[in-house]
Automatic annotation (TrEMBL):
Regions crossing the membrane: 359-381
Binding site for ATP: 462
Cellular component terms (Gene Ontology): membrane
Catalytic activity annotation: L-threonyl-[protein] + ATP = O-phospho-L-threonyl-[protein] + ADP + H(+); L-seryl-[protein] + ATP = O-phospho-L-seryl-[protein] + ADP + H(+)
Xref: InterPro entries: EGF, EGF-like_Ca-bd_dom, EGF-type_Asp/Asn_hydroxyl_site, EGF_Ca-bd_CS, Kinase-like_dom_sf, NOTCH1_EGF-like, Prot_kinase_dom, Protein_kinase_ATP_BS
Protein kinase domain sequence ranges: 434-716
Domain EGF-like: residue ranges: 305-349
Keywords per UniProt: ATP-binding, Disulfide bond, EGF-like domain, Kinase, Membrane, Nucleotide-binding, Phosphoprotein, Repeat, Serine/threonine-protein kinase, Signal, Transferase, Transmembrane, Transmembrane helix
Protein name, UniProt field: Wall-associated receptor kinase-like 16
Length: 753
């Protein structure tokens, strides 16, 4: 294992190195990709290529000007060297772009300390072929080195003589600056163009006698500028250097391209895809391969197409593109599914359709990812919320005695009267989430919503008051008991929901609103005639009586009032909230709730003793009777103080015999006078301060039933005597009002309707 690892490392390094090598630009263009010389001609000498038009034999050069010879330097097998013609001028480089480099000797002039020449001065010269070869004026510089020297370079150009010169002086070695030929120890000057013959002649001002301790020689040469970099050492070490490179421009003939092209036999640019051009700084013309080709334009078929696609820098195709080499060029083409010409920086783009599809895929992918994520988060959130809601519901359910109710229900046989346990979601659905538009009543008792159950039953849902945790058992008992009251004059408790913080009680929905709303609305009150009122009173009394006497424990309503008596579409009374207030432990009920809900109806005895009995309901019912008779509210704050409390006011009015003053005009009609008296009398009895003195609900109910049937009952009989009745309605006490009273109340007994 370890060995393998060790072994792998160099391999990977090698791979990386190879990759770097492969990807690095291949800057080296091989000059041997194409033939440079004619067939069967020597194209190299001592490592130096010999491109046509140069040649070593007459078959190999274009003309004799381009004759070169390849010779061994020493007689016995020294290295081969290339020479211009059969001279000793050595060629070190020939390039097809019109230059060659020769080695040119250095002129020198040396003296003894006493000022006599130590050796004959050497004057270097070179004579090239006019027009074909000229000393390059761009690549070369005329340079002299020495501290007491001046030199002339002279020669011929364009058929005339020329001379130029330079002076190099110095008095101390320290004067000289490395690399600078500014006349101190070294002087440099350019030469004119088109020079084909040069001669460098050195002179001295004072035979180096003043500088003889460090410099006794002067040197001069025309040389490739880049080949010589001045150093003060050169004052001495140039003595050992015989020659220095010089660049020569070469061109074909002395005619222009146009002139040359006229003579096809002598025109040199014979290769296909070659072209003729005029050299910048010499006469004649040269040839070159057209763009996209390389090779030797002077040879037939010398220019060869460059395979730009073979190297990365050869072409501009982007990495997506397919590079196709063509004659003299290349094309970058886009693979299938790609658009564009491929050339330029844009390169290949995915075909718009393809790209659109990809973009669409990416977008769809991203979008669906996001959607899925959101969905997942939402689902998770909803699940968590659902769980917490379920937990909360469960908590409330237990807190509100749900399990107690369940146990109770389990013990009973299923019956239609059985209380239903509603789920909170069921009721939420029924009431549009307990929306404001579904509220049908609000008060101290809580809020009542109208709801439509899934089975299309219309219900009233009452959100009552929080249950005292210690009284849960009792609360549940009440719910069970109340739900079993199946009386036509009771608003049925259908069930409850215990999953909310405050239990919700679900009642049957009664269409026509409360008795209170009818009595205290002018138009509705007019429609509610005496017989209807009597019927409502009788029904209410009947059901209260029924419940007071029912079962083991009497069910006391506790909150009898016109607000709690509902009317259905046939004006049948339906007592609501039956015992509901008893469901709320009295000590938990805030005083304000009582005052708001029931003040005006409250049994004064109960207020003192805090003992709630059936007789409390009787008292409250008495007030309801007064409401029916007078049309006034049990408590009216907009009336004078003495009239505020209806019960008190009634009793005081009764004492004063002014009863007629408060009888509702709407009920005064034919033949009901006695009934009204009777009801007033009955109400008076009900309002007795002592509970014991009040009749029982049963008696009240029977009395009212009796009145409806027209028969005389004990109570009616007891007010049989006229005297008492007159006392009751104050006929005696106020004569002035008597007629009014009689007009209004004591209508003809049997006038008929
Ligand atoms: C100068 O010096 C050289 C050698 O140092 C000597 O050969 C020569 O004769 C001298 N010439 C004169 C004129 O003194
Ligand atoms: C310099 O040298 C030349 C040749 O050796 C001689 O003719 C000339 O007199 C010398 N001049 C001086 C100042 O030494
Ligand atoms: C150039 O100079 C040489 C000698 O230095 C002379 O023979 C020749 O005639 C001159 N040519 C011209 C054109 O002046
Ligand atoms: C000039 O001197 C420098 C420093 O010694 C040397 O490298 C260089 O070759 C010399 N130049 C020539 C042409 O000999
Ligand atoms: C070109 O060279 C030929 C000889 O090779 C010569 O006769 C002719 O005058 C030259 N033309 C020019 C413009 O120099
Ligand atoms: C064309 O060039 C050839 C060879 O240099 C020569 O012999 C011939 O006379 C020239 N023809 C013309 C029309 O210049
Ligand atoms: C490549 O493109 C650049 C600019 O777009 C251009 O200058 C250069 O010549 C091109 N090279 C090739 C090999 O086409
Ligand atoms: C490359 O280009 C040549 C000529 O331009 C063409 O004939 C050939 O089909 C192309 N090849 C590809 C692969 O495009």
């Amino acid at each position: 294992m370890a060995f393998e690892k060790l072994n792998n490392m160099p391999t990977s390094i090698l791979v990386i190195v190879m990759f770097i090598l492969a990807s690095s630009p291949n800057l080296v263009f091989s000059s041997h990709n194409f033939p440079i010389a004619k067939r069967n001609c020597n194209d190299i000498c001592g490592g130096i290529p010999i491109p046509f038009p140069f040649g070593t034999t007459s078959e190999c050069y274009i003309s004799q000007e381009f004759w070169v010879t390849c010779k061994h330097t020493a007689t016995s097998g020294g290295p081969q060297k290339l020479f211009w013609w059969d001279t000793n001028i050595e060629i070190t480089r020939i390039s097809l772009d019109g230059q060659m480099t020769l080695l040119q000797s250095i002129s020198r002039d040396c003296y003894n300390r006493n000022g006599s020449r130590s050796s004959p001065s050497i004057t270097a010269w070179i004579k090239l072929t006019d027009y074909y070869f000229t000393v390059s004026n761009t690549a070369n510089k005329f340079t002299i080195v020495g501290c007491d020297a001046y030199a002339f370079v002279s020669g011929e150009r364009l058929g005339r003589n020329f001379t130029t010169g330079c002076t190099a002086m110095c008095s101390s070695e320290d004067d000289m600056t490395e690399g600078e030929c500014t006349g101190v120890g070294c002087c440099q000057t350019p030469i004119p163009r088109d020079v084909w013959k040069i001669e460098v002649e050195l002179k001295s001002y004072s035979n180096y006698t003043y500088v003889s301790d460090f410099n006794r020689c002067g040197y001069g040469f025309v040389a490739e500028e880049s080949a010589f970099k001045f150093s003060k050492d050169n004052l001495t070490n140039l003595a050992d250097v015989e020659s220095i490179p010089m660049v020569v421009d070469w061109a074909i003939g002395n005619s222009t391209c146009q002139e040359a092209q006229r003579n096809a036999t002598s025109y040199a640019c014979i290769s296909a895809n070659s072209e003729c051009y005029k050299p910048i700084n010499s006469v004649g013309y040269r040839c070159r391969c057209e763009d996209g080709f390389e090779g030797n334009p002077y040879l037939a078929h010398g220019c060869i197409d460059i395979d730009e696609c073979a190297t990365k820098i050869g072409n501009n195709c982007t990495k997506n593109e397919y590079c196709n080499n063509t004659q003299g060029g290349y094309t970058c083409s886009c693979p299938k599914n790609y658009d564009g010409d491929g050339i330029g920086e844009d390169g290949c783009k995915l075909a718009s359709k393809e790209q659109n599809m990809r973009v669409a895929f990416i977008l769809i992918g991203t979008a669906s990812g996001i959607i899925a994520l959101l969905l997942a988060i939402t689902l998770l959130y909803m699940e968590l919320k659902r769980r917490s809601q379920r937990k909360t519901k469960q908590r409330f359910f237990l807190q509100n005695g749900g399990h107690v109710l369940q146990e109770k229900l389990a013990r009973r046989e299923a019956s239609p009267e059985m209380v239903t346990i509603f789920s909170s979601s069921e009721l939420e659905k029924a009431t549009s989430n307990f929306g404001n538009s579904m509220i049908i009543g609000r008060g101290g008792f809580g809020t009542v919503y109208k709801g439509v159950l899934a089975d299309r039953r219309i219900v009233a849902i009452k959100r009552s008051i929080r249950v005292d945790p210690t009284q849960i058992e009792q609360f549940i008992n009440e719910v069970v008991v109340l739900s079993q009251i199946n009386h036509r004059n009771v608003v049925r408790l259908l069930g409850c929901c215990l999953e909310t913080d405050v239990p919700l009680l679900v009642y049957e929905f009664v269409t026509n609103g409360t008795l209170s709303s009818h009595l205290h609305n002018e138009a509705k009150a007019r429609a509610l005639d005496w017989s209807m009122r009597l019927k409502i009173a009788a029904e209410t009394a009947g059901v209260l009586s029924y419940l007071h006497s029912s079962a083991s424990t009497p069910i006391i309503h506790r909150d009898v009032k016109s607000d709690n008596i509902l009317l259905d579409h046939t004006f049948t009374a339906k007592v609501s909230d039956f015992g509901a207030s008893k469901l709320v432990p009295i000590d938990l009920v805030q005083p304000s709730t009582i005052v708001q809900g029931t003040f005006g109806y409250l049994d004064p005895e109960y207020m003192q003793t805090n003992q709630l009995t059936e007789k409390s309901d009787v008292y409250s019912f008495g007030v309801v009777l007064l409401e029916l008779v007078t049309g006034r509210r049990a408590l009216s704050f907009d009336r004078p103080v003495k009239e505020k409390n209806l019960a008190n006011y009634f009793l005081s009015v009764l004492k004063q015999g002014l009863l007629f003053e408060i009888i509702d005009e709407n009920i005064v009609g034919l033949g009901n006078r006695e009934q009204i008296y009777a009801v007033c009398k009955l109400a008076k009895e009900c309002l007795n301060v002592r509970g014991e003195d009040r009749p029982s609900m049963k008696e009240v109910a029977m009395e009212l039933e009796g009145l409806i049937l027209g028969g005389k009952h004990s109570w009616a009989r007891s007010i049989e005597n006229e005297e008492e009745m007159e006392t009751l309605i104050g006929v005696r006490s106020s004569v002035g009002y008597d007629s009014i009273c009689r007009d209004h109340i004591a209508m003809p007994n049997n006038g008929g309707r």
